[in-house]
Amino acid sequence: MSNTRNLKSIADGFSAPKKKLLYYLKVMHQAGLEDLAAVMKISRMAVHKHLSSLQQRGLVEAIENRGRVGRPKMIYRLTSQSKTVFPKSYSAIATQALDFIERNMGKEGVEKVLRERQSELFDQYYKRLKDLDFDRQVKELARIRDEEGYMAESKKESRGGRKHVLLEYNCPIIQIAEKHWEACSIETELFEKLLNAEIETTHRAAKGDAVCKFMIKERKEGYL
């Protein structure tokens, strides 16, 4: 992921260190002062100051992590209110439109609209993937999704040959996906067509997970 690009996608009104904290907590899910200070490369005192400010704004909360030995340590994580500072795309308007289509045309109408959107995205993505080998296709797909606000990254598994993991830490269309599950299944189909791969979706933000996680396995025959 590009830290600079994702920091720009976080809502304005925050200093650069606070944007970084929000970004890292989004990706890490929860972390202590030591870990945040290490990744931010600033002092624990400075991290605590920024966290306190974000707590006052209702974006971060602290919980006690009681270990077996010693005093309990504080662990920090984002609150549900923090969703407002991350990119949400056109979700509210699109959800209303899909609700209207479902009332008048049923689930079939919703699926038709989403598949038309899938076709448009396929053409856009294909232009950037068509001349790449499989490994670079996965990386480029993650880069595209990252640019679109999904805070995405890909990782290649060290074992198992041609296997990759695509992680999306933010879902700009979560309002749509929570009401219209077809958006998620059609999204997976899009990735399968683009990469000519077998894809297993193990985690979904719309189902309450902290991340969308796609396990990607290349098929033997080529495609792009």
Could you explain how this protein is built, in words?
With 224 residues, the protein is of the alpha+beta class. It folds into two domains: 3-85, Winged helix-like DNA-binding domain superfamily/Winged helix DNA-binding domain (Arc Repressor Mutant, subunit A), CATH 1.10.10; 91-218, Muramoyl-pentapeptide Carboxypeptidase, domain 2. The chain has helices at 3-9, 16-28, 33-40, 44-56, 91-129, 134-150, 174-179, 182-195, and strands at residues 30-32, 60-65, 73-78, 152-156, 163-168, 197-203, 212-218. It has a four-stranded antiparallel β-sheet, with helices on one face. Helix 3 crosses helix 4 and helix 5 (91-129) runs parallel beside helix 8 (182-195). The chain is globular. The mean pLDDT is 85.
The gist of it:
This protein has 224 residues and is an alpha+beta fold.
Secondary structure blueprint with pairings:
Layout: H1 3-9, H2 16-28, E1 30-32, H3 33-40, H4 44-56, E2 60-65, E3 73-78, H5 91-129, H6 134-150, E4 152-156, E5 163-168, H7 174-179, H8 182-195, E6 197-203, E7 212-218
Antiparallel strand pairs: 1-3, 2-3, 4-5, 5-7, 6-7
Helix pairs in contact: 3-4, 5-8
What features would you highlight for this structure?
224 residues; Arc Repressor Mutant, subunit A; Muramoyl-pentapeptide Carboxypeptidase, domain 2; 2 domains; three-stranded antiparallel beta sheet; globular
